[in-house]
């Protein structure tokens, strides 16, 4: 009976060792699956990031032409306004100088209003 008990104990110990091996393998498998899942998620994130960057670059390129077109329109409008101002200056400069000279040269001397009251 003692031999049978020791054999049973031996069988239980072997079963326990086998069970711990199975548990260890399961833990290693779980850790490996987690690593794989993380690496797959990182790849998916990277692919999504690249796709969004390409989409943004396409959007930027399609709207960059609009910016250049708007800039050209503003430049043309500015040039037209500058020419109008130059023409106006050329046409009116003689008249403005004459008005200024008339005001400076034609002085009408008169008494100050406070002096008029005192006198």
UniProtKB/TrEMBL annotation:
<dbReference type="GO" id="GO:0046961">
    <property type="term" value="F:proton-transporting ATPase activity, rotational mechanism"/>
</dbReference>
<comment type="function">
    <text>Subunit of the V1 complex of vacuolar(H+)-ATPase (V-ATPase), a multisubunit enzyme composed of a peripheral complex (V1) that hydrolyzes ATP and a membrane integral complex (V0) that translocates protons. V-ATPase is responsible for acidifying and maintaining the pH of intracellular compartments and in some cell types, is targeted to the plasma membrane, where it is responsible for acidifying the extracellular environment.</text>
</comment>
<keyword id="KW-0406">Ion transport</keyword>
<comment type="similarity">
    <text>Belongs to the V-ATPase G subunit family.</text>
</comment>
<keyword id="KW-0375">Hydrogen ion transport</keyword>
<keyword id="KW-0175">Coiled coil</keyword>
<protein>
    <recommendedName>
        <fullName>V-type proton ATPase subunit G</fullName>
    </recommendedName>
</protein>
<dbReference type="InterPro" id="IPR005124">
    <property type="entry name" value="V-ATPase_G"/>
</dbReference>
<dbReference type="GO" id="GO:0016887">
    <property type="term" value="F:ATP hydrolysis activity"/>
</dbReference>
<keyword id="KW-0813">Transport</keyword>
<dbReference type="Pfam" id="PF03179">
    <property type="entry name" value="V-ATPase_G"/>
</dbReference>
<comment type="subunit">
    <text>V-ATPase is a heteromultimeric enzyme made up of two complexes: the ATP-hydrolytic V1 complex and the proton translocation V0 complex.</text>
</comment>
<dbReference type="GO" id="GO:0000221">
    <property type="term" value="C:vacuolar proton-transporting V-type ATPase, V1 domain"/>
</dbReference>
<feature type="coiled-coil region">
    <location>
        <begin position="12"/>
        <end position="54"/>
    </location>
</feature>
